[in-house]
Amino acid sequence: MDSSFWHQRWEKNEIGFHEGKPNPLLVKHFHELSVAKGCRIFVPLCGKTQDISWLLSRGYRVAGAELSQLAIEQLFIELGMQPEIATVGSVEQWSANNLDIFVGDIFAVSAKMLGSVDAVYDRAALVALPEDMRNRYTAHLMEIANKSPQLVISYEYDQSLLEGPPFSVSNEEVHRHYATTYDLTLLAGIEVSGGLKGKAPAKENVWLLKKSEPLSAAVLSGAIIRREAEH
Question: Which CATH architecture group holds 3-230?
């Protein structure tokens, strides 16, 4: 899968992945991230999602990354915003009213370009990428977002029944990508009504990822003492 796939989807308006309203799972579970109003939320592979409007309306600042310029043109029109556009490295930064979108390859977006991030909301990024790209994506995302907490929505289904995207990302795979950095909590696992695209029974999973806190010296010492006492 290369960039032309996504450009063609937007050019042909084949964007079934685009929801016409804020995602209900975002609305229900966003508070779990425990970020105050005014904090900056990063939305990777954002398209023209109305989740951005929802976040802005609740007092958050938003950054996004999106390959398709057409999608971002539509986003700013729908938001009623006139962006300022600047070239940053090999991407463009479209900015207006607490919103910054980096238009181009997300792998060309650096931590310095992105700036401060307080949390990540990933509804359609991880599941949009084939398996051979997901390792690279998750490592890059953690790097540029400085291991900020994440709310991740994934799908789990029999991949043989349906070609992605969205791709099936098992719970085990989510752990494989993130468990060395984050404490993971599965907030919800919801059966997709009618199956995914009407073809594959599927579950939509909502994950909360919060950075693991290193054990203090006192806790480690206590654990060692207890183990020695047991022996």
Answer: 3-Layer(aba) Sandwich (3.40)
Indicate the domain borders of the chain: 3-230
pLDDT at residue 28, rounded to an integer: 97
Q: At what angle do helices 131-144 and 171-178 cross, to 10 degrees?
A: 40
List the beta strands (DSSP E) in 19-157.
40-44, 61-66, 84-88, 91-96, 99-103, 119-122, 150-157
Contact 80, 58 (CB under 8 A): no
Please state the φ and ψ torsions of residue 98, each to the nearest 5 degrees: 70, 20
Residues near 127 by beta carbon (within 8 Å), at least 6 away in sequence? 153, 154, 155, 164, 165, 166, 167, 168, 169
> What is each CA distance from 9 to 70, 76, 78, 104, 166, in whole angstroms?
10, 19, 19, 15, 13
Structure tokens at 205: 């999973």
- Measured CA to CA, the distance from residue 91 to residue 5 in angstroms comes to 19
Mean pLDDT by 10 residues, the chain (231 residues): 60 56 95 98 96 97 96 95 97 97 97 98 94 96 98 96 92 97 97 90 97 61 54 51
157, 168 contact by CB (below 8 A): yes
